[in-house]
Write a structure and sequence with these properties.
The complex is a heterodimer.
Chain A lengths: L2 H27 L2 H11 L1 H5 L11 E7 L4 H7 L7 E6 L3 H10 L4 E5 L3 H7 L4 E7 L3 H28 L7 E9 L6 H32 L1 H7 L4 H32 L7 H25 L3 H18 L11 H6 L4 H15 L3 H30 L1
Parallel strand pairs in A: 1-2, 1-3
Antiparallel strand pairs in A: 3-4
Chain B lengths: L2 H17 L1 H21 L7 E7 L4 H12 L3 E7 L3 H8 L5 E5 L3 H6 L3 E9 L3 H30 L4 H8 L3 E7 L6 H32 L2 H5 L5 H30 L8 H25 L3 H18 L12 H9 L2 H14 L3 H25 L7
Parallel strand pairs in B: 1-2, 1-3
Antiparallel strand pairs in B: 3-4
Classes of the chains: A alpha/beta, B alpha/beta.
Chain lengths: 385, 384
C-alpha cells in the first residue's frame, strides 16, 4: 500500500475515533457534580490527606510512675522526649495508668521501681517496666522500640563510669545514617504521592467502565454498533477521553498542589512521568473495560470495581511495605498495574531515575495493558456480534 | 408513616436486589472476602528489609556483626558489594532498601576500645519504613556494643561473664504488652477491617439503590404514589441497613472464629454501635445519591468518599494521635475513627459503655444528621 493510501484509510479511522472521544468529553463535561468532585479529588483532597498526616508514631502519650524519685530516675524520664514521646503526666498508682490506657488517653506507662538509683549504683541491673497499649500492634511495637533505644542509650551512659575506673577507652559502635531521596524525611511527599496514585487508580478504572456500561444500560450501544465504528474504536475512544481528563487532573495535582504546598520534587523527566502515567491510566482503564463487559448495569460495575480496587490499594505497596507481604499476596499483586506504577512515580519524582532503570515496570504495564485490552475486545465482540 | 407502605417499599427494594445476582452476591460476599484477604494478606509490620553490605574490613568481627543482619527476621541480607558506588543503582531500582558500610580498621578500633562508626544508607522514599529500619539498625548496634563491652570487661578486668554483662548493660527494659499480649498484627487489624469492609460496601449499595431509580425514571412511580417521602426513605434504607447488619454478624463471626480475635467487651454495645455505624454508612450513600443525577457520578463520588478518608483518618493504618492538630481535627469529622475505637475497645481492650459512650454518641450524631439531611434533600417534586 502506498503511504497516501494508508493515510486515506487511517484518516477516516482517526476521525471517527476523534469524534467519539469528543462525544465522551462533552458528556463528561455536562455532569457538573462529577466534574466538581474530580477537581476536588485532585486538589483539595490531595492537600488535606497529606498535610500533617504521618504514619510514624509521634508524640505517644506517656505516663510515668516514678517510685524512686531520684536523680537517675528523673534523668531517665526526661529522655522520653518529642517527637517520639510526649510526657502526659505522673501517676501515683499503676492502676490509674491502666485506666487511662483503657480510655485511650495514654499509650504507654513507664514504671520505675523503688530504689532504682541505689540498685543501679550497686551494679545490680535494675529493670524499668514499660506497659504498652498494643490494641494497634504496629504502633505499640514502635513505641516499645523507641523506648528500648532511649533506655539503651541511658544504660550506655550509665555504663561509662564503670569503664572510666580503669581507662577511658571503651568500644562503641556509632550509627551514622544517611537517608537518600528524601533526606529530611518529609512525610507529606510520601502521603501526597500515594494519595495521588489512589485517585488516579479509582478514576481510571471507574470512568471508562461506567461510561461503557451506561451505553449498554440505555441501549445506545446498539446505535454505535450499527455505525461504521469498530468495537476497538468504541472502547478506545472512552479510554482516550478519560486518559486526557485524568492526565490533566494529575498535572494540576503535581504542579498546583504538590509542588507549591509540599515542595515535592520532580527529579526525573516530567515528560517521561506523564508518558508513563498515561500508560498506567490506559492499562487500568483496560481493567475497567473488562469489568464493563462482564456487567449489565452500573451498580454491578461499582461493586466489581470496589472488589478490585480495594486490594490494589491496600496490597500494592502504597499502603504497607510490599516486601513484608506474604508470598501469595506478592504473586497476586503482580497483575496489579499499581504495583509497577508506584516504582515509576517514586523513581521519577524522588529518585530521578530514567527509562534505563524503569523499563521493567514500564514493560510490565504494557504487557498487562495489552492482555486486558485483548480480553475486553474479545468479550465485547462475543457479546454483541 | 404507614407500616404497610414501608413494608411494601422494603419488599420492592429487596426483590430488586435479589434479582440482580451479581449485585446480591457481592453485597454479601464483598465484605467477607475483604476481611479474609486483608486479614491474612495485609501485613503492616516492616520485615524483610533488603540490605547489602560493603565490608571494607573483612575481619572476623565484621562478619560477626553482619551475621546479626542475616539472622534477623527484619532484614533480608542480599549479599556483599565491593564498592559503595554499586549501592546507588540498587537503591534507585528499589532492589534494596538499605546498605551497611563497614569502615577500614573496624575490628582493630573496636578491639582496642575505640569507637568505630558504621554507616548505613537508607532509601528515604517511604519515611515510615526508613524510620523503622533505622530503629532496627540502632538496636543491632546497641546490642553489639553491649556484647563487645561485656567481653572487654571480662578480658581486661577479669570480671566473670555475668558481672561483665551486668556492668555493660546496667539497666534493663522490660516491656509488657497490654490488650494484645503477643502483639499479633491480625488481632489489631481484623477489628479495624470490619469497619473498613462495611464502610466501603454499604454506602455504594445505598447510593446506587437510589440513583438507579432516578436515572431509569422508575422514581416517578414513587413521586406519583401515596408513599410519603419518609416512608420511601425508611423502607429503602431499612433494606440496606439489614444487609449491612447481616454483614456485621458475618464479619464478627469470622473475626472471632477464623482469626481467633478475642472479644472481651459488651455484645450489646457492639450491636448498638454497629447499627449506628450501618445507619451512618447507608446515610452517606443516601446523601450522595440525592446530590447527584447520574449513576456514574454516584459511583465515583461514593467510592472516593468511602475509601480515602477511611484509609487516612480512621486509625486503620495511620495513627491519629501522631497527626498534626489540623489532621486530628479532620479525623474527628469522619465517622470511621469512632467505630474503629469502639471495635478495638470491644474486641481487645474489653472496655464498656463508661469508656466508649462518647464514640457511640458521635456515631449517633452522624446517623441523625445524615438522615435529616437526606430527608431534607429528597423531594417528591423534582426541581428542574
Amino acid at each position: 500500500m502506498t503511504p497516501a493510501g494508508m493515510l486515506a484509510r487511517t484518516g477516516p479511522w482517526m476521525r471517527r475515533l476523534f469524534v467519539m472521544t469528543r462525544k465522551e468529553l462533552l458528556q463528561l463535561s455536562r455532569d457538573v457534580p462529577l466534574l466538581l468532585f474530580l477537581v476536588y479529588s485532585f486538589t483539595v483532597s490531595v492537600y488535606i490527606s497529606s498535610a500533617g498526616v504521618t504514619m510514624q508514631l509521634r508524640q505517644a502519650a506517656l505516663l510515668v510512675h516514678d517510685a524512686d524519685h531520684s536523680r537517675s530516675s528523673r534523668d531517665l524520664i526526661h529522655r522520653f522526649q518529642p517527637p517520639y514521646f510526649a510526657l502526659h503526666g505522673e501517676v501515683n498508682d499503676p492502676a490509674e495508668a491502666v485506666r487511662q490506657l483503657d480510655h485511650g488517653r495514654a499509650m504507654a506507662l513507664l514504671d520505675i521501681p523503688p530504689r532504682f538509683q541505689e540498685v543501679l549504683r550497686e551494679g545490680a541491673q535494675p529493670a524499668v517496666q514499660l506497659l504498652v497499649d498494643t490494641s494497634n500492634a504496629a504502633q505499640g511495637l514502635s513505641a516499645a522500640g523507641y523506648a528500648a533505644r532511649i533506655v539503651g542509650q541511658f544504660a550506655a551512659d550509665a555504663a561509662a563510669p564503670v569503664s572510666t575506673a580503669g581507662q577511658r577507652l571503651r568500644p562503641l559502635l556509632e550509627s551514622e545514617h544517611r537517608v537518600w531521596f528524601n533526606p529530611d524525611q518529609n512525610e507529606a511527599w510520601f502521603q501526597s504521592v500515594t494519595h495521588l496514585l489512589r485517585m488516579i487508580t479509582i478514576f481510571s478504572i471507574l470512568l471508562p467502565a461506567a461510561a461503557l456500561v451506561r451505553e449498554k444500560e440505555r441501549g445506545t450501544v446498539e446505535q454505535l454498533l450499527v455505525s461504521p465504528l469498530t468495537p476497538f474504536q468504541i472502547m478506545f475512544s472512552k479510554v482516550v477521553a478519560m486518559t486526557a481528563v485524568i492526565l490533566t487532573a494529575t498535572a494540576v495535582a503535581v504542579f498546583a498542589v504538590m509542588q507549591p504546598a509540599f515542595h515535592v520534587p520532580m527529579r526525573g523527566s516530567a515528560v517521561l512521568f506523564f508518558l508513563l502515567t498515561a500508560l498506567f491510566i490506559v492499562t487500568s482503564a483496560g481493567f475497567g473495560l473488562v469489568i464493563s463487559t462482564l456487567t449489565r448495569n452500573q451498580a454491578q460495575v461499582g461493586m466489581i470495581t470496589l472488589l478490585m480496587v480495594a486490594p490494589m490499594m491496600l496490597l500494592s505497596g502504597i499502603s504497607a511495605p510490599f516486601e513484608s507481604m506474604p508470598p501469595w499476596v506478592q504473586s497476586l499483586m503482580s497483575v496489579s498495574p499499581l504495583r509497577y506504577y508506584i516504582d515509576v512515580t517514586v523513581g521519577i519524582l524522588l529518585k530521578g531515575v530514567g527509562m534505563d532503570l524503569l523499563w521493567k515496570p514500564a514493560l510490565a504495564m504494557v504487557g498487562l495493558g495489552a492482555a486486558v485490552f485483548s480480553a475486553g475486545i474479545w468479550r465485547f465482540r462475543a457479546q454483541f456480534d | 408513616m404507614n407500616a404497610r407502605r414501608i413494608r411494601a417499599v422494603m419488599a420492592k427494594e429487596w426483590r430488586e436486589t435479589v434479582r440482580d445476582r451479581i449485585f446480591l452476591l457481592l453485597a454479601f460476599l464483598l465484605p467477607v472476602l475483604w476481611l479474609v484477604v486483608f486479614g491474612y494478606g495485609l501485613v503492616i509490620d516492616v520485615e524483610q528489609i533488603r540490605v547489602v553490605a560493603v565490608d571494607r574490613d573483612r575481619s572476623a568481627l565484621s562478619r560477626d556483626y553482619l551475621s546479626r543482619f542475616m539472622e534477623s527476621r527484619y532484614f533480608d541480607f542480599v549479599g556483599y558489594l565491593d564498592s559503595e558506588r554499586d549501592v546507588d543503582e540498587l537503591l534507585r531500582t528499589a532492589k534494596i532498601r538499605a546498605a551497611v558500610i563497614i569502615p577500614d580498621r573496624f575490628a582493630e578500633r573496636l578491639l582496642a576500645g575505640e569507637p568505630a562508626a558504621v554507616q548505613t544508607l537508607l532509601d528515604g522514599t517511604f519515611p515510615l519504613y526508613t524510620d523503622i529500619a533505622k530503629g532496627y539498625i540502632v538496636a543491632i548496634n546497641t546490642a553489639f556494643t553491649g556484647d563487645l563491652l561485656a567481653e572487654r570487661l571480662s578480658r581486661v578486668y577479669g570480671m566473670t561473664r555475668e558481672q561483665a554483662d551486668r556492668a555493660a548493660r546496667p539497666v534493663r527494659l522490660e516491656v509488657r504488652y497490654l490488650y494484645n499480649e503477643e502483639v499479633r498484627g491480625t488481632w489489631s487489624q481484623v477489628p479495624a477491617l470490619i469497619m473498613f469492609s462495611l464502610m466501603l460496601a454499604s454506602p455504594l449499595l445505598t447510593a446506587l439503590g437510589v440513583v438507579r431509580e432516578k436515572e431509569s425514571g422508575s422514581i416517578y412511580n414513587i413521586y406519583s404514589s401515596t408513599v410519603s417521602r419518609g416512608e420511601f426513605l425508611t423502607g429503602k434504607l431499612t433494606t440496606y441497613l439489614l444487609i449491612a447488619m447481616a454483614n456485621v454478624l458475618m464479619l464478627w463471626a469470622i473475626a472471632v472464629w477464623l482469626f481467633d480475635v478475642p472479644f472481651k467487651g459488651s455484645l450489646l454495645l457492639f450491636a448498638v454501635a454497629s447499627a449506628l455505624f450501618a445507619m451512618v454508612s447507608t446515610g452517606i450513600g443516601l446523601v450522595i445519591s440525592l446530590l447527584v443525577q447520574t449513576q456514574m457520578a454516584a459511583l465515583v463520588i461514593t467510592i472516593v468518599v468511602s475509601t480515602v478518608p477511611t484509609f487516612i483518618f480512621s486509625g486503620l493504618m495511620v495513627p491519629i494521635s501522631s497527626m498534626s492538630p489540623g489532621g486530628q481535627f479532620q479525623a474527628h469529622l469522619f465517622p470511621s475513627m469512632y467505630y474503629t475505637n469502639i471495635l478495638r475497645g470491644s474486641f481487645l481492650k474489653g472496655v464498656g459503655w463508661n469508656v466508649l459512650w462518647t464514640d457511640v454518641l458521635a456515631l449517633g450524631v452522624f446517623a441523625v444528621v445524615l438522615r435529616v439531611w437526606g430527608y431534607w434533600l429528597f423531594t417528591k417534586r423534582p426541581r428542574l
